[in-house]
């Protein structure tokens, strides 16, 4: 590809994240094929992992996602405000949260303990309709979820509230700790605890609509974890949950986000020229420097200083010196370039650009964090199929 071609649309932007909704739909279909016996929940928390929750939710629905999932109730209510009317669940509650609004908006809520059940019941009374509740068991993640010790009490209390018409237990669910490490002993152990929890709930008289446990890595590699519903986040955005599991292409997935900036300045400098705060990079010879107008305020990790990869003029360049709040510099090694030229930070990789996974490796994190942290100052441009075809 020719990096000296006119920059891609929107041609006037400092930087933008192109979001390929056709790729997202295709990913949803590929994931549904992986879990043929289950329905799919498209996880669109944290603004759709940085891809834009509303357009991604809409595209996922079009591709057959029966459920949407968010972390916070505010995220779920925002989807309702945007017009979504399908099954929708959120799981990260705190006391005093918008329980009543959730019940009135037909949002399924997660309950991990008695305090939450009490809030759901109070909300149901106020709303004059039952709260749809997914009871969560901690099968070993040690994060949210009811302990196995408290589970008989929680399921019995939920059943009593159900008998009073105040709640409907629509789901029983849990979450994996190490599904991205194939064969990890905790996977089978958590499944066993979940099966026991389901049996306890059945003895309490609960008959949920969906039992669910699988995140992306479990959806891709642990079929016995699929139950009635799989909750896919990162894979839907075309990113492998872990490089050890395989590449996106191995699973028929295609990265959805391409992050591009346009050079703000190109200049020739002599050897020995310090670059950016601290002057941690010094030009080894006479060279050209390209100024990339995005920085840590845009979600470019400051840890990418000296390591982050960028495609400019058909070649991989590395962040020279520190990433600043709004900009960083690449050493173009004497190549000619001009202000306005494209600098592709990451994308699907088929134009030779780095991927979000390459950035994750460069900065010692996971690709989840790379895409999710892209800041609000970077416009998301939703396209079909990508402007680059
Ligand atoms: C974020 C999240 C998911 C999705 O995980 P991925 O690995 O991105 O597929 C599923 N379930 C819960 C509870 C989550 O918090």
Automatic annotation (TrEMBL):
InterPro entries: Ala_racemase, Ala_racemase/Decarboxylase_C, Ala_racemase_C, Ala_racemase_N, Ala_racemase_pyridoxalP-BS, PLP-binding_barrel
Record-annotated Alanine racemase C-terminal domain positions: 256-383
Binding site for substrate: 143, 325
Record keywords: Isomerase, Pyridoxal phosphate
EC number: 5.1.1.1
Pathway involvement of the protein, from the record: Amino-acid biosynthesis; D-alanine biosynthesis; D-alanine from L-alanine: step 1/1
SMART domains assigned to the protein according to its UniProt record, in alphabetical order: Ala_racemase_C
Sites bearing N6-(pyridoxal phosphate)lysine, chain numbering: 45
A molecular function (GO) term: alanine racemase activity
Top class in the EC scheme: isomerase
Cofactor requirements of the protein: pyridoxal 5'-phosphate
Catalytic activity, as annotated: L-alanine = D-alanine
Gene3D superfamilies the record matches: Alanine racemase (3.20.20.10), Lyase, Ornithine Decarboxylase, Chain A, domain 1 (2.40.37.10)
Active site: 45, 277
Biological role: Catalyzes the interconversion of L-alanine and D-alanine. May also act on other amino acids.
Family: Belongs to the alanine racemase family.
The protein, known as: Alanine racemase
Gene: alr
């Amino acid at each position: 590809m020719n990096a000296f071609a006119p920059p891609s649309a929107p041609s006037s932007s400092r930087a933008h994240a192109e979001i390929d909704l056709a790729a997202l739909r295709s990913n949803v279909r590929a994931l549904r094929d992986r879990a043929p016996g289950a329905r799919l929940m498209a996880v669109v928390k944290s603004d759709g992992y940085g891809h834009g929750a509303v357009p991604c939710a809409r595209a996922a629905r079009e591709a057959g996602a029966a459920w949407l999932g968010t972390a916070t109730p505010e995220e779920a209510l925002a989807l309702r405000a945007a017009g979504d009317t399908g099954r929708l669940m959120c799981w990260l509650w705190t006391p005093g949260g918008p329980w009543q609004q959730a019940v009135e908006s037909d949002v399924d809520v997660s309950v991990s303990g008695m305090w939450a059940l009490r809030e759901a019941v109070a909300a149901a009374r106020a709303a004059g309709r039952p709260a749809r509740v997914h009871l969560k068991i901690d099968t070993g993640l040690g994060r949210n979820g009811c302990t196995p010790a408290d589970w008989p009490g929680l399921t019995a209390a939920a059943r009593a509230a159900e008998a009073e018409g105040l709640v409907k237990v629509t789901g029983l669910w849990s979450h994996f700790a190490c599904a991205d490490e194939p064969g990890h002993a905790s996977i089978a152990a958590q499944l066993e605890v979940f099966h026991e929890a389901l049996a306890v709930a059945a003895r309490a008289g609960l008959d949920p609509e969906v039992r669910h446990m699988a995140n992306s890595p479990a959806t891709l590699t642990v079929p016995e974890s699929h139950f009635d519903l799989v909750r896919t986040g990162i894979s839907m955005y075309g990113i492998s949950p872990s490089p050890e599991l395989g590449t996106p292409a191995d699973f028929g997935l295609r990265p959805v986000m391409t992050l591009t900036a346009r050079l703000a300045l190109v200049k020739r400098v002599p050897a020995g020229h310090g670059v950016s705060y601290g002057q941690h990079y010094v030009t080894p010879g006479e060279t050209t420097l390209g100024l990339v107008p995005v920085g840590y305020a845009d979600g470019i990790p400051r840890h990418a200083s000296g390591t982050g990869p960028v495609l400019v003029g058909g070649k991989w360049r590395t962040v020279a010196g520190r990433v600043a709040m709004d900009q960083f510099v690449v050493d173009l090694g004497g190549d000619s370039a001009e202000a306005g030229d494209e600098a592709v930070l990451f994308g699907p990789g088929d134009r030779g650009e780095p991927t979000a996974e390459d950035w994750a490796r460069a900065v010692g994190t996971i690709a989840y964090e790379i895409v999710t942290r892209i800041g609000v100052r970077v416009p998301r441009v939703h396209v079909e199929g990508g402007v680059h075809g």
